[in-house]
Structures are given as structure tokens and as C-alpha cells.
Amino acid sequence: MHRSPEVIGGYMPENTGSLGSLQVRLTRTVHSAGCAAKLSPGNLSRALCGLPVKKDPNLLVGLDKPDDAGVYKLSDQIAIIQTVDFFPPIVDDPYLFGQIAATNALSDIYAMGGKPITAMNVVGFPSEKLPLDILRQILKGGLDKVHEADAVLVGGHTIDDVELKYGLSVTGIIHPKKIITNSTAQPGDKLILTKLIGTGVITTALKAGKVSQKSISAVIKSMSFLNREASLIIQKTGVNACTDVTGFSLIGHSYIMAVNSDVSIIIDHKAVPYFPKAQLLVREGFIPGGTYNNRKFYSPYITVREQVTTEALNLLFDPQTSGGLLISVSHKKAPLVLSRLKANGIKQARIIGEVVRKQPARIIVI
Ligand code: CO
Ligand code: CO
Ligand code: CO
């Protein structure tokens, strides 16, 4: 039976005019984009619930306190950090998609305070729908980021798939005593966020063709910016806890930090830095499905002050792809961390809230 490409893949090859070549809009070939494609947090916890995971004294960070990556001690001097992240295309350019997916995968190593060492490609590729050159460009983008991170690519695994997916499994190293987890935030800490919020909203509008490729350049630049520098700064300065903000949103990842640390967190929505068009686009209704999943799952645990609008809240629930680090640091050291971030090119970093003693609500949005 013959079906048109649109019916099979939901995409239309487009003539780019100036180049005169056929170009595929990668984001139109898939049903959801980037970290917004994550299984909802509710479904994930139901699937994991009660599975008999083996205990091991060398497993320093595992599934019992979900963190950015797992950490396994090899000796008193060295532990390995392992993580894997892959997702459908979030932008149309294959090379940039590769860069973004790799940056996002490397980020979990940086959030733990580690150094990435090796990486492996994880690929699902619809070989009947897309030309192989697209795969080559994706892999090139990923490889360039792996090299920028001073890691090496050691292999990978590719399957012929209905929809395109790409990412990396990354292994890093760390001293077992220097792991920065998401479970040691202390009351009195300030929370610093190192990247702007709104990648979900803007890439959803992009997919709908409502923002020009040009106007999302700031978002692409942010999503392909390694969290390495920020990680080196927090390793050097010493902080209490860290995570990176990805698919579960700013509120979701703050919530996980609050629960794991047995504290509550106050987020000042006016202090959160957003991409310039994010507030406008969220008002126009470009809200990724992941926002609703996040909202539904985390709402019972949060208190929202009445001055916070629905639009503002939707951005705080916006699933981020390759988001920034969320750093919990003592109020004494917070200005130093902030000034070091800004001096190293991370000018958008802001203090967005604080950690308080555990309250009935884990997250309080003011
Ligand atoms: Co993470
Ligand atoms: Co991850
Ligand atoms: Co294999």
C-alpha cells in the first residue's frame, strides 16, 4: 500500500529556495520534541515502583534517591558517573540537533560535579524516510560537543526506528568524596539558575512554524552551551547541592531537590530569567504537552501565591531541553558563585529563590 510521506511521518520536504535543495523539517517528523518527550513523571514512578533493585555498597548514588546520574565507587580515589539521555529532534537543523542532544546528555555529569570521559551514541533512525546524510550531520554535531567537553566517543548503538532519536550515554569520573548531589540543599541556601527558561514554549512555537529559525537562535545557543564552566565554578567554590533543569521543569527539578534534601524551596517567579519571547508565546498558547504532565504531577506539592498568573506558572512547568544548572549554595557564598559565573560568560545567571526548612508545601511560588 502506498501512503504519502506526510501520512507516514507527518513531515513535508520543503524547498529552501536560496540553497535550491530539499530540506526536511526534522521537528515535523516526530510527535514531540526534546526533553518534552520524556515519559511523564507519574508514569515513570509507577513503572519503577517496587522493582527489586540490588543493593551494592559501592553504589553511591542510585535509584533510591533519584539524581542526575548514577555514581559507582571503583576505589577510594575514584568513582564513575553514568548517565544516558536521548530524544526526538528539537530543532530542524541536524547538526544543531546533534549538538543540543549531546550538550544535554553531558549536562548530568556536570550537575554532579564530574568530568566526562567517554560517550556512546544512542540512535533511532528512520532510514526509509530520511537521507543518511542527516544522520551523519547529527553525529558530527554530537561528536563536536563530546570533543569540546574533552571526552572521547567510544562507540554507540543505532536502530532503524519509526521516529528519529539521538543522544549519548556518558561516563564521567569524580572523587567519591566530591560528588555534588541534589539531596544536600540546606535551609538558608540561595538557589542560582544558570540558563534562561522557556525552551519548551519556544520550540513548540517553532514546530508550529510560528517563530522564525532566526529568532530561536538565542534558544539554540543556550541549549548547545555546555554546563562545564558552571560546573567547574561550583566545584571550585563549594556548594551544597546541584541539579540540571530538564524535562521535569524548573518546579519539577526543584521539587526533586527539595524532597531528596528534606527541605522546602521558595521560587520567586519574578526573579527567574526567561527567554525574551517566552512570556508572549505562552500567552499565545504554545504550551508543550510536557507542561501539563508536569503541572498535573507536581501541583499537589506546591503552594502558589495569588499574584502568580497561570502564564507565569506555565513557564515554571515548561519542560527544558539542555537547561541550566540549579545550584543550592550557602547565602554567604552565593554572591561569589554568581560573580564567578558572570565573569565566565554566564551572564544570565540569577538567584531565583531560597531553601527553607521543610513545610507542608515542598515548593512555594511567590
Ligand atoms: Co539531570
Ligand atoms: Co538526564
Ligand atoms: Co549494541
**Second rung of CATH, namely the architecture of the largest domain:** Alpha-Beta Complex
Q: How many beta strands in the DSSP annotation?
A: 15
Shape: globular
Question: Helical stretch count?
Answer: 12
Query: What is the multimeric organization of the chains shown?
Result: single chain
* Low-confidence regions: 1-22
Distinct ligand kinds = cobalt (II) ion
How does this model look, in words?
It is a single chain. Strands 10-13-9-14-11-15-12 form a 7-stranded mixed beta sheet, with helices on both faces. The protein has a 6-stranded mixed beta sheet with strand order 3-4-5-8-6-7, covered by helices on one side. The protein has 12 helices and 15 strands. Helix 7 (228-237) runs antiparallel to helix 12 (334-343). Helix 4 (132-148) links the parallel strand 6 and strand 7 (152-160). It has helices at residues 5-9, 41-48, 94-111, 132-148, 199-207, 217-223, 228-237, 249-261, 278-283, 289-298, 310-316, 334-343; strands spanning 13-15, 22-24, 59-61, 70-73, 79-87, 115-125, 152-160, 165-174, 190-193, 241-244, 263-267, 302-304, 325-329, 350-357, 363-365. The model is unreliable at 1-22 (pLDDT under 50). It starts with a helix and ends with a strand. The protein is an alpha+beta fold and 366 residues long. Bound molecules: cobalt (II) ion (3 copies). Residues 83, 85, 108, 246 line the site of one cobalt (II) ion.
